[in-house]
Structure formats: C-alpha cells, structure tokens
Amino acid sequence: MDRRPGLSPAVAEVRRAVRTALEGRTGGVVVALSGGADSLALAAATSFEAERLGIRVEAVVIDHGLQEGSDAVAARVAHDARERGIAARVIAVEVVPKDGPEADARAARYAALAGAAAEAGAEAVLLGHTLDDQAETVLLGLARGSGAASLSGMAAERRDAAGPTWLRPLLGVRRRTTVAACAAEGLEPWADPQNADPAFRRVRVRDRVLPVLEDELGPGVAEALARTAEQLREDAAAFQDMIDETIEDIVEHAEAGISISVAALTANPAALRNRIVRYVVESEFGVSLTRAQTLEVARLAVDWRGQGPIDLPSCVARRVGNRIEIVARARD
Fold first, then answer.
1. CB < 8 Å & 24+ apart, contacts of 75-82
2. Which element (helix H / strand E) includes 6?
3. In this structure, which long-range contacts are made by residues 284-289, counting pairs with CB atoms below 8 Å and at least 24 apart in sequence?
4. Does residue 60 sit in helix, strand or coil?
5. Which of 38, 50, 77, 264 is the most exposed place for a label (fewest CB within 10 A)?
6. Does 89 map to a domain?
7. Which element (helix H / strand E) includes 216?
8. What's the number of domains the chain is made of?
C-alpha cells in the first residue's frame, strides 16, 4: 500500500487497483485514453506502476470523428499525456453504421485498440471502466431482460480467441475516486458532451435512474449491483464448464447445421437445458435467441406434441425422431 506522506487516498486507491491488475505481467500494455477522469486517472496510475515493474506503456487516444473538432480534442489529450511522460498517440477510426451509434463506436474503438496492441507488441489493453459503469451496465441488462449474461456485466479480465487481454482494473473503484485522483495530481479531464446527452440510455441511467435508486433505497446501490454482476459471472462460468463437459456427448453435426439429443436435453435441468440451446445456436449461427425462442426450441424436447418447425434468426429448429435439428434457413 502507498503510505508516503501527502499521497492522496484517491490516487493510492487507483494505483493499488492498477498494481493488482499488472502483477505477474511482463509484456507491454496499452491504455485506452479518452481524456475523461476515469481514463486519465488510469493512465497516470498505469504509468507510475508500470515504471516500477519495468513494463512498457503506451496510451492510445481514439478519434471516432463523430463530433466537430474531435481531432483537435484527441490531439490535445495525447499531447497532455506526453507532457506527463506517457507515450501517447492518436488513432482515427471510421465508425460504420450497423447496430446503433454506441455499439458502432465501441466496435470501431475496440478494433483499433486491439490493432494498436498488436503493433506495440503489448499483451494487454487497459480500459477505464469503473464500479459506476458496471452498475449502469447491470441496470441496462436488466432493462433488456436477456438473462444472467446481461446482468453479469463487464469482466475485469477477458481474453479473446485472438488478440490482447482486456483488463478493467477500476471495476472496484467509484467514479468520484477517479475524479478526486485527477484533482490531486493536477490532471484536467475533458468533459465529453455525449456523456451528458440524455438521448443515450446510459446517460439517463447515470443521471436519473441511479440517483433515484440511491435516494429511495439508500446508499450502496451501485456497489450492490456490481457485487451482483460478479456473482453472476461466477455462476455463468460454472454453467459454461457444465456445458463444455456435456456438449460433445449430446450435439452432432447435421446437414447444414447441428442436432441435439432429445433424451439428453430432457435429462438436464431447465437452466442448463436452455443455456445449451442458446449456446449451440450462437456458436453455429452467430445469433442470440430471446427467452421465448429458447423455450420454444426446448419444448421440442420436453413438451413434444407434433409442433412444426420453429423459425429462428438465420436458422430453423425442428424435431426429427429422437433429435432436434437446427439448420440454416433455406434461401428464397
């Protein structure tokens, strides 16, 4: 623990969180730097801790080009980082319209960060999401009603099949702490106007929903939501282990798709059965089933009454003898 005289408790807390995330790592890291208080505090703490550990650090500022003057803002953020001894560069990205402004910007940003990590030979990318971001993510997942996967929030550490490890050292740190850490270190955060735009659902959750919950239910709501996410992530990992152990015995390849044993699916409890259905469809066809769609497919096994084929996104589920076949939908 940092105990040097005059060290701000907020700075110490952020550094401690970063130190924990970096322990045991030897390769370089990239810090996603937006210029906001969270990423600024993260970059400063990472620079401090990485120097002590002999780890290379580069801050990467992504210019999404979605606001007038965004290039100038990105250049200033990178310049300020370099003034504090942090290697930094700007990467301009093209945001391709597909799934909505927030999702499209996120996809472009993550792809650029992964590319920057590969270029720098870095093993990890550090992201500045805080406990408050985690609480907001859980509430947004609750509104979608898509089950434990949504409520489990963001992982503190995640490794894709290819690419860097994604680290979120500040998931246990409140946003007010990062603001205090910046003030203590003389850092001047940039206020992104989109973070105050109520057109975005996350902003409404942040500025309206969470404050009301805190007022009506008492303090500690954000922490409780973050704890819930952590517990659900543990549950999801346990379920995934069960699925991995079961899947090879009950799933077979079929023409243009896959098939699942009716007897084996019926023998599993509903929670595991439904997860198996969702998992195999997403793995084979890259689509996520709704709760209602999942239950309809499961009924082909547990409540078979001669139902016809079930239309799903990109595929069709049908009962064939003692198996459920899920195959690609025939093109017109």
1. 76/35, 76/190, 77/33, 77/34, 77/35, 77/190, 78/33, 80/35, 80/188, 81/33, 81/43
2. none
3. 284/257, 284/258, 284/315, 284/326, 285/257, 285/313, 285/314, 285/315, 285/326, 285/328, 286/314, 287/312, 287/313, 287/314, 287/315, 288/146, 289/313
4. strand
5. 264
6. yes
7. helix 210-217
8. 2
Question: Checking phi first, is residue 220 left (phi over 0); if not, alpha (psi -120 to 50) or beta?
Answer: left
The mean per-residue pLDDT over the stretch 110-135 comes to: 97
> Which residue range(s) make up the domain with 300?
255-328
What Å distances lie between residue 220 and 40, 44, 172, 207, CA to CA?
A: 25, 28, 13, 16
Q: 3-state class of 251 per DSSP?
A: strand
Q: For the segment 184-237, what is each residue's pLDDT rounded down to a tens digit?
A: 999 999 999 988 999 889 999 999 999 999 999 999 999 999 999 999 999 988
Q: Is there a domain that residue 206 lies in? A: yes
